[in-house]
Each structure stands twice: as structure tokens, then as C-alpha cells.
Specification:
By secondary structure, this protein is mainly α. About 50% of the residues lie in helices and about 5% in strands.
Length: about 230
């Protein structure tokens, strides 16, 4: 995993998400989350923060998050959930034991990275619901690609949430040097390549971008739930 100082990034991106909420129409539909509005995305993300706090403190995933009470300011409610998350992860040694999504990394440090990428994608959702989006830093986007390829997609396959690809998809970031990742490990078969910016590759993996201009074989794999 790339060496990144995650806590400042988490603090910055959660603060930005709260700012976006303060300007957004909470009833605006979110294109890539069918049936959801901006409010739904905010409640989901704040609930995920609550869930992660529990996973770190209690060491298990058994928490039903509490949504904001009716009439509560959405941005302020989200900011409180984010502050609790950032405060806990900043105060907890990254090697401390915690329940996580990665059976090979049961440490609190896992959540520093995972929550940054969770916030980045959902901030894109909220911004996209209201108009043009702000570019995602290529290095951060590429780390998000690596997280899907190395951690989330293998877990999806292991849990039978998605089929193992019949061929590997070679992901090449055109805006970074030597940025190549393989989605799937179908040894001995031909692979198929997708060349795009790191941001677009990240959005493709999270079903936030169109695939009709890709090789149909790659599009077929990316249409599957490669990330949760």
C-alpha cells in the first residue's frame, strides 16, 4: 500500500463533504445510487462512520447506525459523525486490533485508508448531483483503484458476491507513471486492457462512469459488483 498520511486526508475530505452538504439540495437525486437522494447518501456515510467507530472500539461489525432525528441539520449531523470517526482513528494506534473488511489486516489502520476513499467517492456523488465535479487527485484515485483490486474485489469474490473474472482486466492510469493493476487473477488466459485517467478508473470500479466505449469484455467484468 502506498505510504500516505491518512488522518489529515480524512479530516480534509470529511470537512469538505460537510461543506458540500451545506450547499446541496438534500432532495436532489444521486444518479449512480438508484433511488437515493443527497440526504440518503449523507445518512449512509454518517452511518458508515458510526459503524466503523464500533468496529474499532468493540471489535465487531454488529451495529445498527442511528440516523439524524427529523428536522436535524444534515450537514451538522454528518460533521459530528465525521468528527467522532476522525478523533477515534487519530487517537488509536494504526496497529491496534479492530474488525475490518480485510481478513489479512485486522487493524485500526485499515479504516484510515478505507474511510478516505469512502468519503471521496460519496463526495463525488453529492457534487455530481448538483453539477460539475472537482477532479480527484490522481495519486489518491490510483490508491483507491489499488484498494479495490487488492482488497475489495478479492473479498467480493470470496463472499460469492461477484463471479471471478474469466480473464484479467489490466487497468492502466494514463496520468501516472508505471501505474498498472490487474483486476482478477485468471492465470493462463488473455487479459483485456482499460487505459484511462486514475480518476476514471476509480469511478469505473465504483460504477460511476459509462463503459460503452470500453472493450466489451472489460465492460462485462466492470458491470459486476467488483466493489461492495
Amino acid at each position: 500500500m502506498t505510504t500516505i498520511d491518512w488522518i489529515p486526508l480524512l479530516r480534509r475530505h470529511t470537512a469538505r463533504f460537510a461543506e458540500l452538504l451545506g450547499r446541496a439540495d438534500p432532495d436532489a437525486p444521486v444518479e449512480h445510487c438508484p433511488g437515493w437522494t443527497v440526504r440518503d447518501v449523507a445518512v449512509h456515510l454518517g452511518g458508515v462512520h458510526q459503524w466503523v467507530v464500533h468496529a474499532v472500539v468493540a471489535g465487531d461489525p454488529s451495529l445498527a447506525p442511528e440516523p439524524p432525528v427529523p428536522g436535524e441539520d444534515l450537514a451538522e449531523w454528518y460533521a459530528r459523525q465525521a468528527q467522532a470517526l476522525v478523533g477515534l482513528l487519530a487517537a488509536t494506534p494504526p496497529d491496534a486490533a479492530a474488525w475490518t473488511l480485510d481478513r489479512d489486516d485486522r487493524t485500526a489502520g485499515f479504516w484510515r485508508r478505507r474511510q478516505v476513499h469512502e468519503v471521496v467517492v460519496h463526495a463525488w456523488d453529492v457534487e455530481h448531483a448538483g453539477g460539475p465535479t472537482t477532479p480527484i487527485d490522481p495519486a489518491l484515485a490510483w490508491d483507491g483503484v489499488r484498494e479495490v483490486v487488492d482488497v475489495l474485489h478479492p473479498r467480493q469474490v470470496r463472499l460469492d458476491r461477484t463471479p471471478a473474472p474469466p480473464y484479467a482486466v489490466r487497468l492502466v492510469a494514463t496520468d501516472l507513471d508505471d501505474a498498472v493493476a490487474m483486476l482478477g487473477d485468471a492465470a493462463g488466459t488473455d487479459d483485456v486492457e482499460v487505459r484511462a485517467t486514475a480518476e476514471r478508473l476509480l469511478l469505473l470500479l465504483w460504477h460511476r462512469d459509462r463503459t460503452d466505449d470500453l472493450d466489451p469484455r472489460a465492460a462485462a467484468v466492470l458491470a459486476e459488483p467488483v466493489a461492495p
